[in-house]
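Technical annex B. To support the medicinal chemistry partners, we prepared a structural model of the target in complex with cytidine-5'-monophosphate, based solely on the information shown next.
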Amino acid sequence: MNLLDGKRVLLGVSGGIAAYKSAELVRLLRAAGALVRVVMTPAASGFVTARTFQALSGEVVRCDWSDDRTGMDHIELARWAERILVAPASADTLACLAHGRADTLLAAICLASEAPLLVAPAMNQAMWRHAATRDNLACLQRRGVQVCGPDTGEQACGEVGPGRMQAPEMLLQALSDSFASGRLAGLKLVITAGPTREAVDPVRFLGNRSSGKMGYAVARAARDAGARVELVSGPVALAAPEGVERVLVESGQEMLDAVLARITACDIFIAAAAVADYRPVAPAAQKIKKQAGEWTLQLEPAPDILATVAALENRPWCVGFAAETEQLELHARKKRMHKGVEMIAANLVGDGLGFDTDDNELLLVWEGGERHLARAPKSRLAVQLVEQIADLYSHSMTTDETPADDAKHSA
Ligand code: C5P
């Protein structure tokens, strides 16, 4: 399966004849839905021009420190990347990476990034076999760097042996596979996302600013972790993530019905939707006409989907979200107990965080524990959240407690 849809991949291109193959790799990555930014070493531009990568990636290409316009571009790129692939990785670049050098822009980005690093070595077969290269490779592998290839065959220099860069299709597959953790393999997850719309009349509704970005990111991360994901989504401007079954709904009641229809045999329920708390008591059948003076709209509580699921007899392990404007931890802990769920992921709204933004910051609270996830793109937070859920879920499965028992402790 293609797990690259929406992923942010930084492609490092170092000096080598194989650099021309990286142009095809950019094309394949883009076709798979990945966002690609290319950083070349100065030596690479002797083989392929930045313009080629610029045209194929649709992004500015950086080659040198002079391209670090703000002086902080390298840090921004290091944070932006979810994966870094250096292809081709020359003997010189491998040596730089092994020694933690930061003299080229690419090496500095690799040093500053927490993203998993993959390298696709490409060099003359004698250079590849040299003890220095072997040591550098061993050092990188010890640090968790994934080495792709090289292939064996005829080389540009006329020699035959190992040192050809792995084919772009193989590198694409390696990148895609690197997103598959398998932590939730075999599990069914139901996730809600986005806002709801509560009809006032046929043309008006009560809604909210939720973009659905967080819930969709969680759905992708859960899918990447091997889960079967069913996403119940309010109206959003986002495409259904590949490999995720999505059902679109409008109102809170429709969302509840869609969730309940899918909750049997569901292992984990994540309520990321911003569901209306109140809805009009009697939506008008016809458009309400403007009148002089004040107008009062009577509201009634809308169904609480999370609390309803958490109260089911054979209920899944439940995670709720909480958007707060103050006293985050206190409100998150109260909400967890009040709703009777295993975990609350809370975030402060405002200051460029929360609704309709690409970044977020989360405080996860569960019985006897908490974890702060620092400000980061929602896609990265979603991966961390899913890992934490997988940890706690697998722990709960090895103890005697059912989700219902745990909720009793919490209540
Ligand atoms: O009570 P509050 O709205 O702050 O709780 C937020 C959490 O509850 C979120 O996980 C949200 O998806 C869920 N929720 C719900 N149904 C509602 C209101 C909130 O599932 N009607």
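Notes passed to the chemistry partners:
The two ends are 41 Å apart (CA to CA).
Residues 8-178 form a domain with the Rossmann fold fold (CATH 3.40.50.1950).
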